[in-house]
Amino acid sequence: MIPQIHKQGSHTLGLLYYLYGKGTHEEHVDPHLVASFDGMSPDPGRDRAATKKDLGQLLDQPLHLLASDQRPEKHVWHCSVRAAPDDPILTDDQWADIARRIVAATGIDPGDGAGCRWAAVRHADDHIHIVATLVREDGRRPDHHRSGKRAQAEARLIEKELGLHQVAPGDGTAAQRPTSAERHKAARQGRERTAREELREAVRCAVAGARSDEEFFDGLAAAGLLIRKRAAPSGDLLGYKVALPDDLNRDGEPVFYPGARLAPDLSLPRIRERWSGDAPDVPAARTEETVRTGPGSPAAARRSTASAVWQAVLVVEHGEDVVTAAHIAAAGEVLDALAKTSAAHTRRELHDAATAFERASRSHVRAVRGHDRALRQAARDLVQGGPALGRGEDGATTAMAIDMLFFLITATAHWHARRGHAQQAEAAARAAEHLRTAYRAAAAQPIGVLYRRGRRLSRPMLQRQTVLLREALPEQAEQILAEPGWYALAATIAEAEAVGHDPRTLLSDVSARRELGTADSVSDVLVWRMRRTADLPADVSHLPETSTTGSRSAARGTTARPSAPGWRRSGDETSRKPV
């Protein structure tokens, strides 16, 4: 249940005309009074003899008893209270009780017999509007300081008592929600999202990997935004505003939003904190990059991202809070950059993951920047590497990066939960689920290729690797052997051994350093960890079979064996489906 205190107004009758009207989109159905300060106020919705003017005059009567110079200019208090979409439809009596509790909790009508006059109007199943005059019966102003927080606290109690969906308590670090007017405007214009939400995402993406004001504003311009900069008399840049070119007000002028109104961490001073600790630019090339992962390529960027994320998990699990907060904020940049540069079949889920994680990237733990430079460099590499293909080394390293990110975001959810950051923990958990879905799409083809290679390994080699697995991971071996992904892991072990690695040591190392309990497939996780650690190409579809397979059919060029249960072959793509 969400109570929202709207801006104070000066026209009671104007608000009543809206509440009892048809609504902007004909959404007001059967508007009527459910409660009022005296229980006997006229109801223009169901009493033909009553008018909106009658109700307005009754509510404003204490105002007109004051001398004109003592009347507050903004005297209209307006609060909407909305149930969650999955809540049952409440009765008028239930909404009436909710209204009385809200006005009491907020100080509008505290129950002392001299409170403000108010009325609660219901014009839809899922919400009510409470309108009140901010003058008490005794002529004093009500004590409604921090009425928003007081209303939220009362709503949490109401949810528990009525068995409604329990909203996670906020901490004041969330981005401002779109107003009702902004939502209606977006609907009229046929937009899926409001201008505020589109701008917030565009600014986040422009921040990802930027290292100066110039790069940041270049990113905004590249996104097609209109920009206004605010400078001091000295010429120093103090702030900025952005607008969508086609989002206009009544006068046909663009509607600009300051960065701080989009999100608390998108003001210019807060943005500058991100690159204050950045190291000088370094090439995207890494010595471990191998096949088709040249300097500056999308695949190279994804490999470096996987390495940076791998180290960041350890920081989130064991680091100091201020350092962890910086890594969590930088993880949001990595998600934004990855979503922006990934192929179509993963882009939507990655975008949704980044959007969900935006809420998890802020808390009252203030980030100390500089420690997060590896993640920020990863975001920069992703942006500079450009769009990735959904196949080959690009596609396989995308799966590798998503796999690592899933564990980082899951660790973030646990970190927030331990500190009582309910909204952030929930947001991180939602982001992790989107990453889980994106991983399945990204990994289907490369894991499928490895699976088929593993199936073609000779029986003696598979038996030897089974013994090796049981020795290296005795507690997890049986679970791994029962997974379809075991064959992909077996192929990876064979490759690692062929290039000189000790597979037993490698397996022990990659499994011991991070938890595996949240993984859908432990074998898949170990595949990507081993391939990253052992510097193996993520995609092997273009490589010839090696002698380690011991496969006579492969050597003769015959058709591969049919896919195992749980895999479906379609053209050149192999997609994984639950059995």
* Biggest β-sheet strands, sense, barrel: 5 strands, antiparallel
Q: What portion of the residues fall into strands of 2 or more residues? A: 5-15%
Structural class computed from helices and strand pairing: alpha+beta
| Tally of discrete structural domains | 3
Overall geometry: elongated
Instruction: Compute the number of helices.
Output: 21
Structure notes:
This protein has 579 residues and is of the alpha+beta class. It has 21 helices and ten strands. The protein has a five-stranded antiparallel beta sheet with strand order 1-3-5-4-2, sandwiched between helices. A hairpin with a 2-residue loop joins β4 and β5. α18 runs parallel beside α20. The longest helix is centred in the C-terminal third of the chain and has 34 residues. The radius of gyration is 30 Å and the shape is elongated. The C terminus is likely disordered.
Structure, briefly:
The protein contains 21 helices and ten strands.
Throw out a few tags for this protein.
single chain; 579 residues; alpha+beta; BirA Bifunctional Protein, domain 2; 3 domains; 5-stranded antiparallel β-sheet; elongated
